[in-house]
Amino acid sequence: MSEDIKAKIRERYKGNANANIEVIPAIEQPSFYEDFSEKRVAVYARVSTGSANQTSSYELQKGYYEQDVTRHPGWKLVRIYADEGISGTSLSHRDEFKQMIKDCEAGKIDLIITKSVSRFSRNVLDCIGEVRHLASLPHPVGVFFETENIYTLNSDSEMSLSFVSTLAQEESHTKSRSMDRSVDMRFSMGIFLTPALLGYDVGEDGKLTINEEEALTVRLCFFMYLYGYSCQQIAETLMKLGRRTKPGNTKWTANTVLAVLQNERHCGDILARKTWTPSYLDHKARKNVSAKRKYYSTDDHPAIISRDDFIATQRLIANSKYGHKGLLPSLHVITTGILRGFVEINPHWAGFCKADYFNAINEMADGEGPEITNSDLPTAFDLTGFEIARGPFFQSSDDIAVSVTVNAMMFTRTAVIKLGKTDTVELLFDPVRKLLAVRPIASSNKHSIQWASTMDGRRHVKMVCGTAFLPLIFEMMEWKPESRYRVHGMRRQKGEEVVLFFDMKNAERYIDTAPTDPKDGQPGRAALFADGTKPLAKKFKTTVVASPASWTENFGRKATGGAVPLAVDAGIPWDVGAEGMPYQTDKEISPSTESALQKGIIEIVETIRRMA
């Protein structure tokens, strides 16, 4: 059957002439140079930089094409579209080019003339895409590239255009790599870029020199921020004083102030290559996070503020997201009483490290505190040979306890009630004995946190945000950041003074037993029973509680001696409200003192007012 079909096809295509067919010839289209029909012509000119040399090139392009269009029969100049100081690798910011395309879409233009493909675009996708778009319009628009002699409405133009536009794009790529190497060479030799900066002028040698009038604004920003003012408050102050930014604006914003505070050049240093441009096509700058080499030069030029004040300012800025306000904090260590050896926790500061805590205790409290026992009452019974069972074995909803994650902590309602009627408390931590203490404190204290609220005569527990300090606690306890822990506590009282203690060493860990991947159905609990043992429960909860391994050998601590010792030894001074002694964690920096900052602010403001 197939052979018959093939034979019929061959017979049909033998080429027998059919006298009944008349060929109607097409209208021959004139070539670009022979086409003298009326055309509305647009000219596109572009230079890539705004330098004086490029300006002459820009003006020459405009003048040449104005004359060329008027000399051509049938051509009428619609408009010259010109982008000055704009790169051709992207359509971003090329407002004149975009307007030209819109006018083509509106039917106002028949032909676009430009000097070369590189003037039109240095991006292959943009170049071919825009040419195809113009050719597909209801009223097709052609582009004539004079240097390459390419007219885009010619059917054989696209291959040539693709090749030339690829070369133009690669030329930009080569220039970009060359400039990148040049920048590296300049920076490695200590030749840095010196853009306009508030507080400085650029000398003839390219170095920054202090502009004393502007430097007053810079110093005021730093002094006010170190003293405890916010960026917004500083901005409002500068506007009231009539101070100007480097471009001469009298309007200040919080971000403008922050940019001044974060610029290391104000302390005499230079950090070069803070940003870099991954793509030469879109020219979008990205923060340089180890992608390119950075260069840091100290004492490159005269400083307006001290390096210590600059470092202190950066630490305050970094911790402002945790709600910290005020002067640069220091660690405060309790050196007397039942809380001796505890460090007060600043709930809004994340600038301390593990070593800071241990160094503070070793220096301020000789690295140790008084013994705190687990008993509540003395007894006359001889408990020799017995163990005092741990409270968690008898836990109930009335326990004094706290649940802790890496970002937050929440105390039980019993803990809140047992401490008294205070809604604000202070947390203290002893990294040596791994103890957490909670004591009442006034809400005005900078270390205070709200752990409860009173509404309608009833106490309500509030979650405590610990984003700033809890990651360090987890690190010192060697806890898993992804887990939740529960720690049981005890109440200690002498007279009217009450404090809660939590032994963090005996924390229970809540392990998630939900499937690791619902698709494969493999439960995360499988690892808990990898040795072949069977769980007692037939049905699992979403979490299981894991106790410390040391609990497997005993039920609690041994009762040594005839009687359980008292929790509060009469020989130990109580003094729950003892204030912590400050410890400077960083001995290498000495930022301006509070009194020096206050004096500096007053003097600068008075000087500015006299100059007004």
Can you walk through the features of this model?
This protein has 612 residues and is of the alpha+beta class. Among the domains are: 39-172, Resolvase, N-terminal catalytic domain (Rossmann fold, 3-Layer(aba) Sandwich); 200-322, Putative Large Serine Recombinase, Chain B, Domain 2 (Hect, E3 ligase catalytic domain fold); 387-507 and 548-579, no CATH class. Helices cover 30% and strands 20% of the residues. The chain has 14 helices and 30 strands. Strands 13, 15, 16, 17, 18, 19, 22, 23, 24, 25 and 28 form an eleven-stranded antiparallel beta sheet that branches. A five-stranded mixed beta sheet has the order 2-1-3-4-5, sandwiched between helices. The protein has a two-stranded antiparallel sheet with strand order 6-7. Strand 15 (401-404) and strand 16 (408-411) form a beta hairpin. It is elongated. The termini are far apart.
